[in-house]
Automatic annotation (TrEMBL):
PANTHER family: GLUTAMATE RACEMASE (PTHR21198:SF2). The keyword S-adenosyl-L-methionine does not apply. This is Glutamate racemase. Keywords: Isomerase. The keyword Hydrolase does not apply. It comes from Streptomyces nojiriensis. Pfam families: Asp_Glu_race (PF01177).
Amino acid sequence: MKIALMDSGIGLLAAAAAVCRLRPDADLVVSSDPDGMPWGPRTPADLAERALAVARAAAAHRPDALIVACNTATVHALDAVRAELEPAIPVIGTVPAIKPAAAAGGRVAIWATPATTGSAYQRGLIRDFATGARVTEVPCPGLADAVEAADDAAVTAAVAAAAALTPADVTDVVLGCTHYELVESPIRAALAARTQGAELVYHGSAEPVAIQALRRLGLRPAPDLPRTGGLVVLRSGREGSLPAAALTYAEGRLLAGQGAPVG
């Protein structure tokens, strides 16, 4: 079994690590675009073109499924990627976990990039899946870039700014960008101070999207299997190594244990 994941940068680490934990026997192909990142400021057409190139590079390795491990690319390029690769390769998009977060009808904060916050896409998800919950959209300028660079000081500053915009009575937090799941611990710490230690529920997309990919292949999680899977790293179509920044995160170190080169 081989599962590919694509993103502009290292945001895909969270979903790749989730696949690795759930199916240690799976071979992984992680395809990113350091030459073209960040994707967020690009026009939808330009972003879709970059995403298609990254998807084609991954598809050349003949994966059984492809995860678009990026919220922005899912919004702007999922249809194009599916049109090109399916049905030969099932393509799974990444959607913010708004529906499960809102299920209990509490106070939900959605942390997302400034481009996604207030967008028609996110507002549509709130309308369709968050009826009955009180929802606050929290823009997180600079957070994804800080995570990509593994800049601890910038992450701390961006998290603190977003925490200040988060209601103190929040009950559920949606991590609406795949990069944010890599810094869940500092996010938890900042919001614990904001909410005076209230027990919050955090909703990411990494594990659900990994489970969905397995489901599309007719497979179930089997975390106790021996770790036999390998890893191929593609960077703007070129086979290479995990960036050094990836190793600052537990998810990157887990993948490095798969025998991936690191540079």
